[in-house]
Write a structure and sequence with these properties.
heterodimer, A: mainly alpha, two-stranded antiparallel sheet, 16 helices, 6 strands, 63% helix, B: mainly alpha, 5 helices
Amino acid sequence: MVQEWLQGLPPFWLGLIRVLLLVLPILILVPGLIWWERRLLSWMQDRIGPNRTGTLNVPRWFPIKSWRGKKLRTFGLLQPIADGVKLFLKEDITPDAVDRKLYFIAPAIALFPAFALGGVLPFGPWLSDNPATAGFYALLTPVANVDIGILYVLAISSLGVYGVVLAGYASNNKYSLLGGLRASAQLISYELAMGVSLACIVMASGSLKMTEMVRSQEGPLWGVVPWIQNWFLFTPYGLISAVVFLICMVAETNRAPFDLPEAENEIIAGYHTEYSSMKFAVFFMGEYAAMFIFGGIFATVFLGGYNLLPVNWLAIGDSVPALSGVMGFMDRLNYALAPLWFLGKCAGGITFYVWLRATLPRLRYDQLMSLGWKSLLPLAVANFIIVAIWIMGTAKWGVAGGWIAWAGASLLAVLLYLQVMSTYKSGFPDMQRRKVVLTDGIPNAPVGAGAD
Amino acid sequence: MASMGEFMPIVILLGVAALVCAAMVTLSWVLGPKKVTPYKASPYECGVEPSGTARERFPIKFYLVAMLFILFDIEVVFLWSWLTVFKNPGMGSPETDLAFQWFSFCAVMVYMVLWIIGDAYVLRVNALAWDEAPEIHEAKFGAPEAPAATPIPDAALQPAGGGK
């Protein structure tokens, strides 16, 4: 009955409902994410973290007698909300030297793509490509199931650089300018590898549509095992793409270990050094919302989207008739709670981000650039060529021919990559001088003093 | 089939997102107190008296990265239209499909070879080396004079105070 009511709505109102179903959860979840990051980071560093704010003493007049005088604990969940209220009420300082207009709108430009990014992300299943027969969730998600799908994601995510660069430039502060420059170079460098790694997946699934990509992952594993879903993470080319995409997505959201634009030991706070009050926090809201949505994109493209487990329940039910009842139930459960599984995968993405932050030290800037341009990009391009050869081999010589072509091409790509890297290293004799060399007991004596 | 109507919810999303962002930025401007002092309004430079403007020259490397990005990104963009049709061309019959796949595959491989040559060249000339590119300087301007070794006396390495 909800379904009929939704179908009867004019397109504008239905669109607005979908938009609110995307934007409101992000707004509500961001404080939760901040709390989760702080708590998890604390546990990883053997601390406790924010665990007090929001503890409520139940008053003496409370109707339920046994609750009176007790404490209602929220384990610090309200801490980020309290922080947010405080930040709203703090003074919004605008330094004299800034470019006022750009300074004012830069945080808004940084936050904007984080919200817009989720526009094509399906939180629930589409049973078919036709909206009329695609089922209940097709009415609510994604905001628009447009044909260009993943291209929209790439386009919007590349807008993120504007907010950061404008903030850095408008602040008229040396640290901000350095942060903005670093951010721009970093974001565009990693965008390349990200685009190519997604191109591999688009080629293999044959569609740019996000719902179509998830559906192409529901087929039998490697085209052979019918009980297991063919998540792109389980395929060899998909695994390479997933690793490249994962690294690029951390770099695109300016998170540790790629948080050089805000490296506090070098450039204070980078591009938001001059920002205060809620404008300062808006940058972080954008960062956390983008982390959440990028986790969702990773789940959609590589982890089977809204499916709980990589299992085709109905196929198992067909093979083992004794289990068909249970498997049918599991299939319906998988469908009914699909948004929950999807949110779980997004939360997993956030946890991964925090884990990285707690584990890895920050990169040096030349390391960051060489990782993006000299490792990830050639790797993604080699993967791209291998997928093309694999699809061509499958079309020409069948499945076995495709795999043989895949293996041969992989070997060739590895050799080529090693060749390119050795070329690069041979043109780089100076790298050796960076080692710590003791000359008469003095570390790193000036070049030419015998270190060479 | 695909019409502009499909994008209408996206336009609504962009509108709502813009509204939320504008509200966030404006609210803190409206709600917070305003007591401007000269020190608050000066650029932050670690508490030291700020020196000059930040609108100065910055390393050319950043321009170089941006230029290379545009070149390589456009090379990727050219591929997107081919990606979606390569696996299932839908040309009518399996024979024409295979013929199209084979032809476009060869074309793209030639394209990728050019891409790799370009990338190898960029790496070879150290366009992406973020420390100095010494041998370019050496080739063009002659090797820089190596500075004479100036051993630091042991006394200079001792801690200034507080030692045992």
